[in-house]
Amino acid sequence: MTRNGSVAGAVRGRGHPVAPRRGHSGALGIFDRMSRPATTPPLRCLRRCAQAALLILPVVTSAVPAFAQPTRADTANDAAMQAAIAAAKSGQLSPTQADALRGDPRWPWLEFARLSRDLDHAAPAQVRGFLQRHDGKAAAAALRPLWLASLSRRQQWSDFLADWTGSDDPGLRCARLNAQQALGRSDAGWNGEAQALWRTGKSLPDACDDTFDALAARGGLDDALRWQRFDLGRGRRRTRRDAQRGARPARRGAGPGWDYAAFVQAPHARAAQWPRDARSRKVAAAGLARLAKDDPAAAERQLAQLAPLLGMDEAERGKVQYQVALWTVASYLPDSAQRLAAVPAAAFDERLHEWRAREAMARSDWKAALDAIRAMPAKQREDSRWRWFEGRMLEKTGRKAEAQALFRAAATAPTFHGFLAADRMQLPYALCEWDPADPPALRKEVAKDPAWWSAPWRCTASTSPAGPYANGTTR
Question: Whole-angstrom Cα distance, residue 395 to residue 385?
Answer without folding.
Answer: 16
